[in-house]
Amino acid sequence: MRRWTEEDLRLSTLRRQFPWPLDGSTAPTPAAVLDLVAAIAPIQSQVPRAPFVTLATRLPGVRYADLVDLFEDHRLVKASTLRGTVFTSDRRQYAWAEAIARSGRAQHLAGLVKVPVDEVDRLLTAVEHRAADWVAWDDLIEHTRTLMQESRPEVAAREHEVRVLLWGLAGLLRRPPDSAWHKRTDVLRRSSRAALPELVDAPVEEAVTNLVERHLGAYGPVSKDDLCFFLGVRRTPVNRALAAIADRVITGEGPDGRPLVDLDDAVAARDDEPEAARGVRLLAEFDGCLMGYAGSGRLRYLTPEQLVAVFNPKNAVCAPMVLKDGWIVGRWRTVGAGRRVRVEVSMLPPYPPLAEAELVPAVRAVESALDLEVREIRVA
Which residue range is the domain that position 301 belongs to? Predict the structure, then answer.
């Protein structure tokens, strides 16, 4: 049985999450972006710029215009899928995540609003039909209320319950009202079956197995709790998935004695120092280095005291973070309107202030992905 130390876990996941050096000397092609997404997605994306920054951090030099084109062409897809949370993925990953999110969804909603499950199912199907083309979210809310008016007027009269019925509807793609995918709210929705008619419905068990294997390849070693949290499923489907890929899985124990699993691949066989163990990177809000794990798994790159400074579990807000030499050492933000901004970095105790020169490569990567001009870097 394999035994991983804390350092083993940190270095292993750095190899999986950051496969390219942070030089940005050559702009990656759209094909390279999709290869990276296939390796590390789904990417948590309730903040519009999060997928842009995540890709910039892992693939330095990626260009804003290329990312927008990938979204506009539906080669990158944004939707509320796993756990009802917004994720960006490629089409194949979306099909898996949508199958998981759809499973049991009508039954869950029926319990929340006290409406028979078959009626909820018909309603959600009608809503997706209404969104055959891009439609405003508020218009969908009103359409749903109209549909409910005859059969369930007591529900239609309550704004909150109408919104609950549509919350996390995985069959609807999301987009902003214009091409500013990195900063506008996703006010439009469209049926994924209308936008992507070539999508094939994935059986739920197969979808769980595929995303479990993908999660191991992006975040391993992980615990079963990590897998259950990220996919939003119970332990039984995860156990079945791990049994289905048992010949490709390494099992072992973490430093605290907890059982862990990892993908038995070329990355797991390496013991060299990963590129991300050197230099600085600017991580996105809700970055996978934190949110790819549950509970104590989020302490892979920081301490419990530092965790509360970047993640608030009460309102589930996660700050953009600074990774230096493989440790989360601070938070960052952009200040200013328009393209010309200032980057401000706040260090976490006990780390000393970073030198501006250390931040420059990471800032350049974010500039390229967000189409910004950073005029100043400040470190507090």
Answer: 275-379
